Amino acid sequence: MAKLEARVGVIGLGALGLPIARRLINAGCTTAVYDVRFDPVRELAALGANPCSSPADVARVSDLIISLVSDADQTDAIVSGPGGILEALRPNAVFATGSTLGPGPVLRVAQQIAAKGGHTLDIPISGGILAAREGLLSLMVGGDPELLASVMPILKVFADNVTHTGDVGTGQVAKLAHQLVFSANVMALLEGLALAEAGGVAPDVMKLVFKQGLANSSVLQIWHELGPRWKGMLEAKEAGEPMPNMRKDLHLVLDMAQKLGVELPFGNNVSKVADSGKATGHKNPEL
Q1: b or e along 241-274 (b: 16 or more beta carbons within 10 Å of the residue's beta carbon)?
Q2: Which residues pair with 33 in a beta bridge?
Q3: Torsion-angle region of 186 (φ positive above 0: left; ψ -120 to 50: alpha; else: beta)
């Protein structure tokens, strides 16, 4: 495979950022990396990445900057905080945020990037850790279609499906609608398995029944690998602990729905169950 001649930066080297950066390095991209933790930076430097000490250092050497931090506050910090991207953004550089933030924060950041002569793509990601390792992620992209086309070869290094959703911010809308259905799927699957087990049907048998019927889903297909992680997101948390992604995303869903004037009675209940720490079956290791 021909090597890609591209200068790419990756900020946020967590569950998705680390395998994405690995794939970019292996594809031949000149890859600058930054994270507040040094271990993943050191790991990628050993593979040939350019280790950076700040987001500004990443921006100084990158034409495409991919942000994979956790939330809107962290995004604001890497963009406009001390040592942030805005201090060293290259002319016509592209800032692509893969984080799930909601449309408002993305539009705010896009204005800041534009004021410095850059461009923004809104590229929230679906697929999880396993897909990231295999380069099979799905992206929902909001932004200029010509701009998207210009970076498509780079995105295709780690994403199998890239869907253009409209203007900047619509990627976030699509991702949050997706997360509502995904989260409901996880909790409905747990409830169905728990109900069947209580009635005498073994979980593995019930999973087979689901797979053979209309209740089949992508969530069920990878439940063996990722089910424990998703169930962990439904456990009760102490005040002040970081909010698990599933719960964070559901809060963003409800906030967006309120602003759009859309009633989500089912979504409200899904979020309440996720917040309660009492989701049916989430503590049962057999499910």
Answers
A1: eebbbbbbbbebbbebbeeeeeebeebeebbebb
A2: 10, 51
A3: alpha
Q: What is the CATH number of the domain that holds 180?
A: 1.10.1040.10
**Residues 159 and 244 grouped into a single domain:** no
Q: Which residues pair with 57 in a beta bridge?
A: none
pTM above 0.90, yes or no: yes
Q: How many helices (H) and strands (E) does the chain have?
A: 13, 9
H or E segment and range at residue 31:
strand 30-34
Q: Specify the DSSP element, H or E, that contains 205.
A: helix 203-212
Same domain? 30 vs 134: yes
Does residue 210 sit in the same domain as residue 156? Answer: no
Domain count, the chain: 2
* Segment 27-58, tens digit of pLDDT: 999 999 999 999 999 999 999 999 999 999 99
